[in-house]
Amino acid sequence: MAALPSGVLGALDPTSDRAVFRQIADQLREAIDKGRFKEGAKLPSEAELTEHFGVSRMTVRNSLSILQSEGLVSSEHGRGVFVRPRPPVRRLASDRFARRHRDQGKSAFTVEAEAAGSRPEVDSLEVREERSTPEISARLGSARKVLARRRRYLMDGKPVEFATSYLPLDIARNTPIAEPNPGPGGIYARLEELGHRLEHFDEEVRARMPAPDEVKTLRLASGVPVIHLVRTAYDTEGRAVEVCDTVMAADAYVLAYQLPAT
Amino acid sequence: MAALPSGVLGALDPTSDRAVFRQIADQLREAIDKGRFKEGAKLPSEAELTEHFGVSRMTVRNSLSILQSEGLVSSEHGRGVFVRPRPPVRRLASDRFARRHRDQGKSAFTVEAEAAGSRPEVDSLEVREERSTPEISARLGSARKVLARRRRYLMDGKPVEFATSYLPLDIARNTPIAEPNPGPGGIYARLEELGHRLEHFDEEVRARMPAPDEVKTLRLASGVPVIHLVRTAYDTEGRAVEVCDTVMAADAYVLAYQLPAT
C-alpha cells in the first residue's frame, strides 16, 4: 500500500463531535486550499485514504462526494479524483469595452482567451427576430420585438459562456447587426456607425445553480454554479440600445472591475 | 382534491424522452420564471401535483428536489414548498465607495440595506493582528503580519455577508483602524486621514459552492452558491493599503457595476 506524502494529511480527532467523513473532507479541503494538492493534481486514491485514516471505503467516498459537491474536485471514472482548476480567465470589465479594442477589431473574448493562453471559439450562432420578454422590454424601453443574437463561447473546446444580445428592431433590422458576422469590432462598432455612440454600460452580476439546459449547454460539472450577467449598453442620448444576457460557467471566470475612489 | 389554477401547469408529454419527474420540474421552473408563481408563493401541494399529473408522490418529490437543488424553491417543514425570493440587495459598486458617502459617515452597507427596505446589522466583530497568508501578502505587497478586521453583516436578522479586511500593520497599528469602532466613515475615512488618499479599488468576483463553515455562518439554504469578492484598495501612491475578502450569500445580492464606454 502506497504511503501518503508525510505531513500532508493528519490524523482524525476521535474526541470531535464532527462526523469522521466530514473531518476527512475538512483535511482534504484545507490541503487543497493551501496548495498542498495543486490544481489538476490527483488526490490520494480511495485505498490510500482508507489506509491512512483507518476508515471504511464508504466513509472515504462520502468525504470525496462532499468535495465534489463543493466543486473542488472532480472524479474521472477509472482514473481517480482530481483537484479542479481555479478560474483561468480574468475578465476585466473596465478594459473590455474600451473603444480602442473596438477600433482594433478584436472581440473582448478573443483578447481574454489569448491572455489566458487558450484557444477561443464561438459556436451555436443564431440570429433571429423574436418577441421580447417583459424583462428585456423593461430594460430596452418599449421594444416589443427584438433582434436576438445567441452564441456560445468555448476555450480550448470547453464551453464557458452562453450569451444572447437583444437589440431594438428599429435600430438593428436590415443592418450588418442582423448578419451572422457583423464585421470587425462586432455589434458595438456597428451601433456607433449607425449613430448610437456608446456612453456607458450597466452590468448586473448574480450567481445561482444552473438549470438543466444550462448544465447541458455549458457541460458543467456537479457543484459548479453559474454567473448570470446582464449588461445594458446606453448611447450618449441615454437610450438603451442593447441588452446582453450571459450565463457563464463560474469555474471558468473571475470577473475583474476597477472602481475609482473619488 | 383542490384543482390547480387553470393553465398554470400543462400536461406531460408521453412521447418525450425526458423523464417524467424532469418534465414536471421543467413546468414548475417555467411557471416560476414567468412569474405565474411569485416570490414567496406556495407551490401546489404534493397531493395537488400528484393528482394533476397523475403520477406517484415519489415522482413529485423528485421534481421538487430538483428545484430545491437549483435554489429556486425551499421546503418548509409541514408548511409546503415556497418560491424563494430573488436577490433583494442591489450593491452598486461605483457608487458605494464614493467619497461623498464617507464624508456623510454612512457605511455602504447601511445605505444599501436602507434602499432595500431592510434593517442592517453587524455582528461577530473581531479585530486582531495575525500572520498574513501568501495570497494576502501577494496582494498587499510584502506585509508578513496584518491587522485583520472580521465581521458578519445581516439584513432583517438574516446573515448575508462575511467580510475580512486586511491592512498592513505599519499603517494600521495603534490607530483608530485597530479599534472595534473605527469611527464615522469607517476605515477608508481613517486611511485618508492617515495620509493614504484612496485612488481606486480593484474588485475580483468569483462564484462557487460554499464550504461547510460558510453554510453555517451565512445559514445558506441548499443549492445556494456564494459570491466570493476580493477587493484591493490603492492609495494615490499606488500602494495597496487594504484587501477586503468577502463571502456573500448569492441569493441575497445582485452586484451592479457601471462602466464607461470610452
Overview of this protein structure:
- 2 copies of one chain form a homodimer.
- The first copy, chain A, contains 10 helices and 10 strands.
- In chain A, the strands form 3 sheets. The first copy, chain A, has a 6-stranded antiparallel sheet with strand order 4-5-6-9-8-7. A two-stranded antiparallel ribbon of chain A has the order 1-2.
- In chain A, a hairpin with a 3-residue loop joins strand 1 and strand 2.
- Helix content of chain A is 30%, strand content 32%.
- The first copy, chain A, is of the alpha+beta class.
- In chain A, helix 1 packs across helix 3 and helix 2 crosses helix 3.
- Chain A has 2 domains: 64 residues, Orthogonal Bundle (Arc Repressor Mutant, subunit A), CATH 1.10.10.10; 168 residues, Chorismate lyase (3-Layer(aba) Sandwich), CATH 3.40.1410.
- The interface between A and B is large, with 47 and 47 residues.
- Strand 10 of chain A pairs antiparallel with strand 7 of chain B, so a sheet runs across the interface.
From the structure above, extract its key features.
homodimer; 262 residues; alpha+beta; Arc Repressor Mutant, subunit A; Chorismate lyase; 2 domains; 6-stranded antiparallel beta sheet; two-stranded antiparallel sheet; 10 helices; 10 strands; GntR family transcriptional regulator (chains A, B); WH-like_DNA-bd_sf (chains A, B); DNA-binding (chains A, B); WH_DNA-bd_sf (chains A, B); DNA-binding transcription factor activity (chains A, B)
